[in-house]
Design goal:
Elements lengths: L6 H6 E7 L6 E6 L5 E7 L3 H12 L8 E7 L2 E7 L6 H8 L4 H20 L12 E2 L9 E2 L18 H4 L5 H17 L7 H5 L3 H15 L3 H10 L11 H11 L21 H6 L7 E5 L6 H14 L4 E3 L2 H5 L8 E7 L2 H10 L4 E6 L1 H6 L6 E5 L5 H11 L4 H12 L3 H8 L1
Parallel strand pairs: 8-11, 8-12, 9-10, 10-11
Antiparallel strand pairs: 1-2, 2-3, 3-5, 4-5, 6-7
Helix pairs in contact: 4-6, 4-10, 6-9, 8-9, 16-17
Amino acid sequence: MPGRLPQVLAERLEGPTHLDGGQGGAFLARDRVGGEQVVVKRLPASPSAWLAVKVLQEAASPHLPRIVDLVREGGELWIATAYVEGETLETRLRRDGPLSAEAALRLGRDVAEALGRLVEAGTHHGDVSPANVVLPARPGGPSVLVDLGNLGAHGSGTPGYLAPEVLAGGGGPASDLFALGSVVYAALAGAPPFRRPEEVAALDAARVRRKVAALARSREIPAPLADLLERLLDPSPSARPKDPRGVAARLATMVGGDGPSGAPLVPSRWPYAGDVGRLLAGVPGDARVVLVTGPAGAGRTRTLEEIGLSLAADGRRVRRVSLAGALAGERVGDEIVLVDPVTDAGTVRALALAVVAGRVWAVADDGVAEAATDARGMVRLAVPALDPGGIKGLAAAARVADPAAWARALEEATGGAAGRVVRALE
């Protein structure tokens, strides 16, 4: 086993052996306490990974392995999860070929639900692939996304399921959704849409459309699924769906039928594309901490993403760091750092002290900004709720029978906040 098991795990587990197959790179052992088989892996040793797994311990999902123990020792983080019985999608595809459309939809729904849980925990999987999806051991049972060894990792994963930004050393929830699209495609076609890294590196939206259209013709998949695959496989992270739970709901409606013909999934860059120049104009050059604030659901995180894209397009050096890394004084030089979210005024002050020469952009609640007005070099960039007129304009695009009633109901349900509108549409 790479490294040495922490003493507390070495005493608790017996007979660790290398585990081949879907949870490869892990080790199988028997837990002396509970008597069950468990899988042991080493995780990236970061505060965010530790906190995310602690959250997962408290809120189990049928689509993620149950966490048995978590140990941090000597700068290393180890996790033991209950062994998931069943056959991986990779094994099934090798033996039997592609799944039925309904089985592929159910699998995609379950994996998307798992990814949603990970996002809620503040992390992402980092290696969504057929080898890490265990199919139901019984008809109607849940598929399970296993192997949390790459939790929160960037620049890693399984070839054939890597998003373009992962090849460049990046990653995150949007990269998991690209991998999900590749997994569902593989379940329907028997192989991923783009096998070679050079294909992915040169990927554009037109090629994705052609690839999905060819699959749709050969498998006669419903149009809503083809549309969803195009969005998941978009080479731009910001053009993919934002919320894995919305993707899961979309797939759930297609199981056993052709799915809805209503409003499409909305890319994460909507509705702020083109507005960022106006927003940036109000930020003074000597600002060191910029809080993107606004009402809950107004699209603060989407605004932050768009700011990063726009600044990078202007030749600025932009990168995203974890909140823990920023608070630990991770030096940013002359770069612009994107951090989200910030939850209290004390954190804002700590960020102001941590910055050396660069500028930190972060998402925060209105109350946090108001309570931290004494933070040196801090400014507030307020994002308004979506204009009601914009909601009404969406009604026509959704092709509903009664646009006025539809817009009124949507506005009442969401308070006119852009992020909530997006989730409602999804």
